Amino acid sequence: MISTIAPDLSQLDLGGVNAYLWTGSEGPTLIDTGMPGSVKTIITDLASIGLQPADLRRIIITHADLDHLGGARELSAQSQAIIACHTVESAYVLGQKTKKPNPGLLGYLIRPFFDLTNRRAKPGVSHVDEYLLDGQAMPEGFTVLHMPGHAPGQIALHHPDRGILIAADALNNRKGKLGLPSALFTPSMSQAIESLQRLQKLKYETACFGHGPPILSGADEKIAEFVRSVSDS
Ligand SMILES: [Zn+2]
Fold this sequence. Notes:
There is one protein chain. By secondary structure, this protein is of the alpha/beta class. The chain has a single domain, classed as Ribonuclease Z/Hydroxyacylglutathione hydrolase-like (Metallo-beta-lactamase, Chain A, 4-Layer Sandwich). The chain has helices at 39-48, 66-69, 72-77, 90-93, 105-121, 189-196, 219-232; strands spanning 2-6, 9-13, 18-22, 29-31, 58-60, 82-86, 130-132, 143-146, 155-159, 164-166, 206-208. The strands form two sheets. It has a seven-stranded mixed beta sheet with strand order 1-2-3-4-5-6-7, covered by helices on one side. Zinc ion binds at residues 17, 65, 67-68, 169, 210-211.
């Protein structure tokens, strides 16, 4: 299901995980691509607003987890879209490296399953065209924020002119409240919390998440309060 969040920004609800479509300047740009099986839904969502994969100019991958990278290879095969991700994340996006789960005991125990799932799905894309860096200004008007912790090269995107934050999995908004990314799939929670501090200085009205519904007003203050609460504990 596709729904409008803000002018030029739509959310694609891919069942437990969101992708976003920017149709403003320099778009259409798809931000994340769901699980490997999500491509059909993405194509249907695009068609409902008169677009097809071939119209995508850019695909931005916030981080290489299966639920965000999954559809990228198939969609890039159906388009000439430039694939962009953070420089540090590129080896994972290309499938050359696999992220490690949490370093604790449970992470250790699930590691074989985690590796097998990734090997089976082979989510890596064949090419990355743009290697992003922190602070980089994107043609769409977003600024890249490097937010390591949940993934080494995860990015969030801030659109200062439109007052939008796309937070990826830096934090989520499940079950009506803000939360940290899943501990099991976060190699460094302390780094994830440190990354969140960066949001404290930013102004934005709307926040979008990899998981959970967006916050449509006063998002910066709500997130600031959450970040203070997790930093104090
Ligand atoms: Zn995710």
